[in-house]
């Protein structure tokens, strides 16, 4: 049987690894040597579980969306990560990593953010645990996610607007890495997705795996079996998708469908569909699929969603696509917005623009009436209301 887990050197098949400047070697090696020991310790497990339960509000509901199910002719359950404290799945990872940082003796936390949800989650946990917090965010994203910026400031974080490149997630990550290079001893970098050098992709996937752990228990209660026929999630860097599929990776009964940002279309120059358009390359310390030109220069991605416009993808997901374990569909801006309005009108749930891409994949599927589908709503749509109103399809 194939396995899709990371190997001891941090590779998923040909993707992954740690390609880092020498100045960061000690930091990354220190984390690699510490993270599994910390995560396997009883005191970490107990503190992490207690905070997920009492602070985040987990388990998040697995909701049978009856009207959506009727429309697509199957049984669709929504994994409601939008109901977590701070409004997205990002808080699961932020709590876990700050707990690890504390146990490693770090005093200062830095993070990057695109849509702002990871930034808000990290700032929230730093407020809770009395840690200094600096969040790097592209100036373009600062402008389109203004409310999240103010939330981070209110929580006591310093938000640094990045003005290089096209001033979005890639550029915010670049600046966060520069900061880390300048303060390697006391600083811990909380990466928000399954990207970056090993051990980050594996660590983030493990911290988010609480999502699929809960799905197994909740399906057993509601369906009498612990697996669905389909798992669906949006993918940019890939943290909510990794959490959704983690405990099902080696279960071939479960089909995995991931939705990436098609932007204006994969045949245009305005897309963030890395699986469709990327080639093997290195970005932010990992060997993965990267959107690049003939000279290997990284090209600027585009998506209506601030959380999906990343020119790379987590190495786990690059490998799943390469091994044909996951089907990855490119969902365009207009399809995502239409799907968001559909969920809002049918179920009274306003999803984040990122999650709307997973919903947009439903119409591209051919389900049987007996199929059980679990789709992760990775976040709520409050932050995207202005974008929705400007692109109202009705």
Q: How are the secondary structure elements laid out?
A:
Blueprint: E1 11-12, E2 15-16, H1 22-40, H2 42-56, E3 62-64, H3 66-72, E4 75-80, H4 90-103, E5 108-113, H5 117-129, E6 132-138, H6 139-144, H7 146-154, E7 158-162, H8 169-182, E8 187-190, H9 200-208, H10 210-223, E9 230-234, H11 239-245, E10 255-263, H12 274-277, E11 279-283, E12 286-290, H13 315-322, E13 326-332, H14 333-347, H15 353-360, E14 372-377, H16 385-390
Parallel strand pairs: 4-14, 5-6, 5-8, 6-7, 9-10, 9-14, 10-13
Antiparallel strand pairs: 1-2, 3-4, 11-12
Overview of this structure, please?
The protein is α/β, with parallel strands linked by helices and 394 residues long. The protein has 2 domains: 15-51 and 90-203, Rossmann fold (3-Layer(aba) Sandwich), CATH 3.40.50.1100; 59-88 and 209-390, Rossmann fold (3-Layer(aba) Sandwich). It is built from 16 helices and 14 strands. The protein has helices spanning 22-40, 42-56, 66-72, 90-103, 117-129, 139-144, 146-154, 169-182, 200-208, 210-223, 239-245, 274-277, 315-322, 333-347, 353-360, 385-390, and strands spanning 11-12, 15-16, 62-64, 75-80, 108-113, 132-138, 158-162, 187-190, 230-234, 255-263, 279-283, 286-290, 326-332, 372-377. A 6-stranded mixed sheet has the order 3-4-14-9-10-13, with helices on both faces. Strands 7-6-5-8 form a 4-stranded parallel sheet, with helices on both faces. α5 (117-129) links the parallel β5 and β6. It starts with 10 loop residues before the first strand and ends with a helix. The model has no long low-confidence stretch (mean pLDDT 96).
């Amino acid at each position: 049987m194939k396995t899709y887990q990371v190997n001891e050197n941090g590779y998923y098949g040909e993707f992954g690894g740690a390609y880092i400047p020498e100045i960061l070697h000690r930091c990354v090696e220190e984390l690699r040597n510490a993270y599994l020991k910390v995560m396997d310790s009883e005191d970490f497990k107990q503190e992490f579980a207690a905070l997920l339960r009492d602070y985040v509000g987990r388990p998040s509901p697995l909701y049978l969306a009856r009207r959506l199910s009727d429309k697509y002719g199957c049984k669709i359950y929504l994994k409601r990560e939008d109901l977590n404290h701070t409004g997205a799945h990002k808080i699961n990872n932020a709590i876990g990593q700050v707990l690890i940082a504390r146990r490693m003796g770090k005093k200062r936390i830095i993070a990057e953010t695109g849509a702002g949800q990871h930034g808000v989650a990290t700032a929230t946990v730093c407020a809770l645990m009395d840690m200094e917090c600096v969040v790097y965010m592209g100036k373009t994203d600062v402008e389109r996610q203004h409310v999240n910026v103010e939330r981070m400031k209110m929580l006591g974080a310093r938000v640094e607007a990045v003005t290089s490149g096209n001033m979005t997630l890639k550029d915010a990550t670049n600046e966060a890495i520069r900061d880390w290079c300048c303060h390697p001893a006391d600083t811990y970098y909380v990466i928000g997705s399954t990207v970056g050098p090993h051990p980050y992709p594996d660590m983030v996937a493990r911290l988010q795996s609480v999502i699929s752990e809960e799905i197994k228990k909740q399906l057993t209660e509601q369906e009498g079996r612990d697996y669905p026929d389909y798992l669906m999630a949006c993918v940019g860097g890939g943290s909510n998708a990794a959490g959704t599929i983690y405990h099902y990776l080696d279960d071939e009964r479960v089909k995995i469908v991931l939705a990436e940002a098609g932007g204006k279309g994969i045949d245009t120059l305005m897309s963030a569909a890395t699986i469709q358009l990327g080639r093997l390359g290195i970005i932010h310390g990992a060997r993965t699929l990267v959107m690049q030109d003939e000279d290997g220069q990284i090209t600027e991605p585009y998506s209506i969603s601030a959380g999906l416009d990343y020119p790379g993808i987590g190495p786990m997901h690059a490998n799943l696509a390469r091994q044909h374990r996951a089907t990855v569909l490119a969902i365009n801006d207009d399809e995502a917005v239409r799907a968001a309005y559909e969920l809002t009108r049918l179920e009274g749930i306003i999803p984040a623009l990122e999650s709307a891409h997973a919903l947009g994949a439903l119409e591209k599927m051919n389900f049987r009436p007996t199929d059980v589908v679990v789709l992760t709503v990775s976040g709520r749509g409050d932050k995207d209301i202005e974008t929705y109103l400007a692109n109202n399809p009705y």
